[in-house]
Amino acid sequence: MQVKLDLTPERVIFMLQQALSKEKEEWNPSLYKTHTLESEDVTAEERDGIVQWLAELNYQLRLTPETFFLSVAILDTFFGLVKVKPKYLKCIAISCLFLAMKICEEDEVVLMAEDLIEVSRCGIKVADLVRMERIIVSKLLWDLKKVTALDFLQVFHAFLMFMCPGLLIGQYATGSGGLLCLLTRKLQVCLANHRILQFKASTVALSLISLELEGSLPDWFAITVALQTFAEVEKMEIIRCRELLTQILTPHYCHDHFVTIRQSQAAKCKMEQADVEEIYDSIKRLYGDEGMFFMGAAREQ
């Protein structure tokens, strides 16, 4: 799901509702065991390693972020359905990437199976790739269009463009598109850590935006609460997810706008102590009814 530039507020609301509905139908927390000598299944470390390999391959082939996120979603779903031996990891991963390419990329971008195998150096044959594709498609009942954290990130970003476009553009030298690119890169880093799979994709995307806005906008908390309420994300889930994302991202980034651990702890206290009525008053001020959802927010900013 790619967000177009000519969206209306009503269309953004519809897209979010569709994504939330699909997430509710298909989401299950993915749990991976840590490495043990007795384990014959794919471990958390092996899963994270293969996701990092997919990220590097996706970049090397100049594929879209959508392809990478979908390939990992297919991978995690498949691992949740089938016990996999580590020796088949690359075969499964490259097959998931190949399937995602066919869904997300233009036809002229999709490589032939032989070329993909050669470029990736995954050490399998075309027949192995074709066979694994069939297995994955069969196990997933042909439902490959998974909703991802990137889908929610793009929709929430579109929300922000209606709510406070001037403030966002003023905070990022490359404009609002620069914010989305920055958040996408951070989300890719997070995806290579199995611990985020305990949270829904919508929670991860919203928490990441909340962290970024905390270092950029004075009204970040009201915006977070508004998005949280409309997306039906639990407050405590956002708090827990924000803490985890801070742990994951702090070693990777020193961006001026990114929240520190101390700021995250302060934000946790603020969210825990906030008065419920006050929160809903701020939502009403930001949104009004759905027809004036974003216009009122833009005026107040």
From TrEMBL:
Gene3D superfamilies, alphabetized: Cyclin-like (1.10.472.10)
Protein keywords: Cyclin
InterPro entries associated with the record: Cyclin, Cyclin-like_dom, Cyclin-like_sf, Cyclin_N
Stored SUPFAM superfamilies: Cyclin-like
Domain Cyclin-like: 52-138
Claim: Nucleotide-binding is one of the keywords in the record: no
Stretches assigned to coiled coil: none
Cross-referenced Pfam families: Cyclin_N
PANTHER family according to UniProt: CYCLINS
Family label: Belongs to the cyclin family.
Name of the molecule in the record: Cyclin-I-like
Source organism of the structure: Limulus polyphemus
UniProt lineage: Eukaryota, Metazoa, Ecdysozoa, Arthropoda, Chelicerata
